[in-house]
Each structure stands twice: as structure tokens, then as C-alpha cells.
Amino acid sequence: MGNFRKEHDNGTLTKTKENNCSLMREHWFDSFLEQEVDMGLWNYRDDKGFPVWAGIRNIVATRLEINEKGYNSTIHAPTSRFDYVFRYPLEHFRVTKDMFFPNKNKYDACFFVSAGDLVNNSADPTKKIDRVYEGYYNKFDHNLVFQIPYQGKFTRQVKGIEPSNIYYFPTIQIFAKLTEIFHTYFTNKKERNFFLEIAQKTEAISKATVSKARALKLLKGIKAHLHFYRLFVRKVAERVPGKKVFLNCGCYLGHNAILSWHFHSQGFTIIEPQHGYIGPNHYAYNYPTEIFNLPGVQEVFPDYFLTFGEKWGQDISIPSQIIPVGNKYLEGYVGTIQSEKEDKQTILVVSQGTVTERMVEIAKAIAT
């Protein structure tokens, strides 16, 4: 089964000087960052060197935040598994045929994107505009795009991309899930003990919002994704000699950490453009600086994180190189907003699914 190990580099990890954004963090999150260092969770690496904690940290942090803040756990309208499997059967066929059987198609870059970033196009209603990736699509002649549906919706009609070059990413996720179902893991005693130790610490750091049994199930899923994504990435690498990947939400880690790991092993450069709000309390964009140089850690993160502007990069802590580049879609609104007459009687209340009810109450109170 290979060697499963918990490693310490030059002894126990030591705390480093706080970065600027640590002073603005909420107590629960600051405590979480300290504990993942003190518990040595980033030191657990599988027989290939993959830092296992990277695979489940996003779920653990999400469950803990929901518990600490009293959020509604339903953030987005859920997509049923049945819908994922049966809504687009021809798309499953396209992915299987074009990705896993020989063909001569070559691409300059590969994109993993979300349909949630698509907006209407007033110039051509038949084509959506990707508010995050449109400008990057234009930098390359031939793009390979894997799209994750948003609330069940998927489309190949996107400005700047040939419809035949857009593929349904859930097909790959389904194959990975089938790998998990039909393979047996944790049969070796040393491997079982290795993952059991991680699961026990996961239950502790999450304040039991992720049980030991749940953590073991998540870890089994990580093993399966590591297995199947390796095959998938090799097939993509054969078709993308340009060796560039744009990975939406790459810093969230989880299954994206596995994609980054395998793409890095194939010599790819991985880039994540900012797609929304980030700040000192966003778990996906804040990590302890103590872990940045541990073996395997940088391989699970994007090489570059491209922000809307300099301020955004100053409020986060990630090992990726941060480069401010702006955002064409957002900048298009600046002139429109500035040209409008200031209305001192209007207040914009920004909300999201986890706190909608609370923000509605605040908005009503302000209005009265």
C-alpha cells in the first residue's frame, strides 16, 4: 500500500509572525487556523505525498462556520443527483468519447468554470457572457472548457468559445464517484490507522460538526478522486500542449486540490481569477503561513491568483502568487454608476443565501 505518514520538517512547526489580515479575523476562524497548525493536519501525506487535509478542509471549515454563525446550511438551490446524471445524457457521451478515446484535437489552454458566472448578452441573446473568464478566453485560439452546471443549468452557447469545445464536468465527477463505490479502501491496517487519526482530529477541530464517521467517508472519496482524476488529467494533458489551466475556485481546495496536484505533476501552470468577494474571514483564501513551504502544499494550490485590484490581495493569506489584473465585466459598470446622480435616500443592502432572512430584517428596519 506504500507509506502513509505524518511528517514533521525540522521538528514541530513553529508559529510565524502574524500577517496583516489576521488582525481582522473573527475569533472562530483565527482559532481554526491555529488548531490546524497545532494538530499537524497539514503534515499528513499519503503514499504519493498528497497532503490529505487539503482534500477535506473546505467541507470542515464550511460546516464549522455554519455552526458558529448560525447560518442556514442551504446556500444555493441544490441540484439532485438524479438531475446530474440524467438531465444531459448526450453530454456524458461527448465527454466519454472525446476525452477517453483517441482523437487529434489540441488546445492552447484548459478551463474549469462555473455556469453560475454566465450572464445575459445584450448584443447576442443566443450567447451567454462569462463575467470572469471572457477576457482570458480571448487570449487563446483554441480553448478546452469543462463547465460545472449552476442550479442544474448547463449551456454550450458561450461567447468566445466554440460550442463543441465545452464539456459537461459532472461526467468526470460521476466517474470518480463510481470509482469510490466499486473500489475497496482502507484495507491495510497502517492505512486505516493513518486515516482514522485524521478523522479523529477532524471531529475535534470541527467541534463535531463533522463526525469521525463522516470524515472517514470524505477521506474515502478523496482516495477515489485521486485515483480517477489522475487518469482524467493525463488524458487532458495529451490534448493541451499549451500546459495552462484556469481553475475556478482553485484555492477552495477539496477536489480542486486534487486537480491541481495532478496537473502540476504534468508540468502545467495553474491560474485562478478572482470570481467574487474575498477577505480575511473567507476560509478558502486564508491559510496559516506556517504551512506554505511544507512538502506538497504549493502543489495543491494555483500558481497564480488574479485579483480585481491590489486591495483584495492584501486581505488574504495564500501561497499562490497574487497579481492584480482587474475585471473587464465589473469595470464596465464603473462609468455607468459614476455618471448617475447620487441618491442620498438609497442604501444598497448586499446579501447571500446564508443570511437572507437576517438581512431582510435589517433592510426593513432601515426603511422604516
3D structure, described in words:
The protein is of the alpha/beta class and 368 residues long. 40% of the residues lie in helices and 11% in strands. The chain has twelve helices and eleven strands. The protein has helices at 27-38, 53-69, 81-86, 89-100, 134-137, 170-182, 189-205, 212-239, 255-265, 310-314, 328-339, 356-367; strands spanning 5-6, 44-45, 109-114, 118-119, 129-130, 143-148, 166-168, 244-247, 269-273, 304-307, 321-324. Strands 7-6-3-8-9-10-11 form a seven-stranded parallel beta sheet. The longest helix is centred in the middle third of the chain and has 28 residues, at 212-239. The termini are far apart.
What tags apply to this protein structure?
368 residues, alpha/beta, 7-stranded parallel sheet, two-stranded antiparallel sheet, 11 strands, globular
Task: Give a nutshell description of this structure.
This protein is of the alpha/beta class and 368 residues long. It has helices at 27-38, 53-69, 81-86, 89-100, 134-137, 170-182, 189-205, 212-239, 255-265, 310-314, 328-339, 356-367, and strands at residues 5-6, 44-45, 109-114, 118-119, 129-130, 143-148, 166-168, 244-247, 269-273, 304-307, 321-324. The longest helix has 28 residues, at 212-239.
